[in-house]
Amino acid sequence: MDSDSMTASPPAGSVDGEILVRVRNLKKHFPILGGLFRRQIGAVKAVDGVTFDIYRGQTLGLVGESGSGKSTTGRVMLQLDPATEGTVHFENTELTATKGEEMRQLRPRMQMVFQDPHASLNPRMTVASIVGEPLREHRAGNREERKQRIDELLSLVGLEPSHANRYPHEFSGGQRQRIGIARAIALSPDFIICDEPIAALDVSIQSQIVNLLEELQDTLGLTYFFISHDLSMVRHIADTVAVMYLGKIMELGDVDGLYNTPRHPYTQALLSAVPIPDPKLEAVRRRTILEGDIPSPANPPPGCPFNTRCPVAQERCSIEVPEWRELTPGRWVSCHYAE
Amino acid sequence: MDQAQLVLEVADLTTRFDTQDGMVHAVNNVSFDVRQGEFLGVVGESGSGKSVTMLSLLRLIPMPPGEIVAGTVMYEDQDLLEVDIDELRDIRGGKIGFIFQDPMTSLNPVLTVGYQIEESLKIHQETTADVREARAIELLELVGIPSAEQRLKSYPHELSGGMRQRVMIAVALACSPQILIADEPTTALDVTIQAQIIDLIKDLRERLGTAVIWITHDLGVVAGLADRVVVMYGGRIVEEALVGDLYETPQHPYTSGLLGSLPRLDQKGEELVTIEGQPPSLYNLPDRCTFAPRCPYVFEKCLEESPPLLQITDTRRVACWWDVDKEGPRDGQ
């Protein structure tokens, strides 16, 4: 893969590769109701103006701490929650303006893998009916063809056809996540949003699932939006990474560039906080320890959302919202002083 | 470090749970020790028995269905598994402090932070209310909680996750324990908050000289913290080594598999190494090595007999029939 094809540079300038998903200034505000008449008295700005492109066949990793708006971004992209503002384009269709039957026709092409394989599989359905449900719903083939497809899907994700008649509780966490993945790929989608797909799994099982996702990406030509708080795993799986904080993207760039030379103070602090399994390295590493906690998205600080914890914040940062600018080709940052 | 005196010696600890579905062999013949001021990391996945081991030390497991079947836990010339319950209560929260994973469920939601810190002082020390309050403020300042005096009156729900974990640490440190047992204290926290807590524990340990037993599933966290690491799998210790040795030359195939399966922040790797298969069920204690079904080096002996934890150097123990250095079966076995 050459370095040019790894750049994601909204708005699209001179880049190779085909953009599959184009997100522009996407916002999701949840109303806070209060008072006698339950009027809106405020808003939780869960996603507050994010812009990025996802290239076909690549993986965009979205990292951030809990409450930064990662999952909401994913849900709004697939129109599981309506957007407050902004647009999402899938190929040439504007999803944010697509409704009803037209949207339903598009659904098979975009799927989701969820974090908790215990909660996202119906305990009363057999594996065959879970994996086969999308096929039935979208009338893909007759009964015999569906059965064949289910067997094929199970073997694709490393399960046995004999598992088809069992129930989710008979499987371990890792196997359940495989079932969830089989369901997501059942209708041969182009695009899959993986929302913390390994967070609930044991360490030795996480790598199995990530390897499976990578393998499926190669064989089926999938495009991933990989949401995770695990920065090491995102480095492994992603081509491009976006760092989110309090509903906004702080920095975006190709994975090696961003991890090797983070430009935004938040990215720098976040990366320095991740422990590395190497005692020698840990002994000499310097950490930027951030003070305090992530502020509430119902009451974000004025100016740059990171200014309350930023080690290099100036007066300007608490007044003026930094512009989303392209620092170097393909590297985008939202900071007045990053260079 | 070698000269420091032993403060805790655990030998052959075995804990079982008699459940409806059968006997769960949670901890099997676990032996380890902790020296004065030492930082011991205990690493394992869920179900490896790491938490139950630590809870068993202080008899904190529910009995029944739990039962500590065998073993000794020597602390200050007495066996904690034998001492009477009043004496044990003095030690719990007094000389041995405990920090739990989830500060939301282990702090009492209807009591103020100040009350919960002072409670432990009230039980363990004969002091006046004023002295206790002063000590509580001192502790909150020690763990880095701003405006400590006002915070005494806060309830747990008014604090963020990181702040609650700091309160838990303050409670555990209230009586200046000699040993602090921390069970996944940062697992529920975000990485920037985790870094704050790790920094705090490092600093406290240097200042107070407390021995720390840190339980985690994250090999990254203990790399920068521990002096010595114990790796658990299927209710047993499979390897123990000084921290540098463990990461550089893991001797047990499980340890090396675990290290290989970790993606690295500082380098873009190729395909991740995986440990195939699933963690073991603890219902039946097999006669073979617990790791055998997932082990790439498995041979006949592994299926015949479970390997004991062998002392291979002064600072190193491993429970494996295979010698990775020799690339053959271990000598003398």
Mind explaining what this structure looks like?
The complex is a heterodimer of chains A (339) and B (333). By secondary structure, chain A is an alpha/beta fold. Chain A has one domain: Rossmann fold (3-Layer(aba) Sandwich). Chain A contains 10 helices and 12 strands. In chain A, the strands form 2 sheets. Chain A has an 8-stranded mixed beta sheet, sandwiched between helices. In chain A, strands 2-1-4-5 form a 4-stranded antiparallel beta sheet. In chain A, strand 7, helix 6 (203-220) and strand 8 form a beta-alpha-beta unit. The longest helix of chain A has 18 residues, at 203-220. Chain A is globular and about 70 Å long. The model of chain A is unreliable at 1-15 (pLDDT under 50). Chain B has 333 residues and is α/β, with parallel strands linked by helices. Chain B has 2 domains: 6-95 and 177-269, Rossmann fold, CATH 3.40.50; 106-174, no CATH class. Helices cover 31% and strands 25% of the residues of chain B. Chain B has helices at residues 50-57, 85-91, 103-106, 113-124, 129-142, 148-151, 161-173, 191-208, 219-223, 243-248, 253-260, 300-304; strands at residues 6-19, 22-35, 39-43, 66-75, 78-79, 96-99, 179-183, 211-216, 228-233, 236-242, 310-313, 316-318, 322-323, 328-329. In chain B, a hairpin with a 2-residue loop joins strand 9 and strand 10. In chain B, helix 4 packs across helix 5 (129-142) and helix 5 (129-142) packs across helix 7. The longest helix of chain B is centred in the middle third of the chain and has 18 residues, at 191-208. The radius of gyration of chain B is 21 Å and the shape is globular. Chain B starts with 5 loop residues before the first strand and ends with a strand. The mean pLDDT of chain B is 87. The chains are: A alpha/beta (339), B alpha/beta (333). Chain A binds chain B through residues 65-66, 172, 174-175, 202-208, 210-211, 214, 229, 231-233, 235-237, 255-256, 259, 269-283, 285, 287, 289-290, 293-294, and chain B through 45-46, 160-163, 190-196, 198-199, 217-221, 223-224, 243-244, 247, 257-259, 261-266, 268-269, 271-276, 278-279.
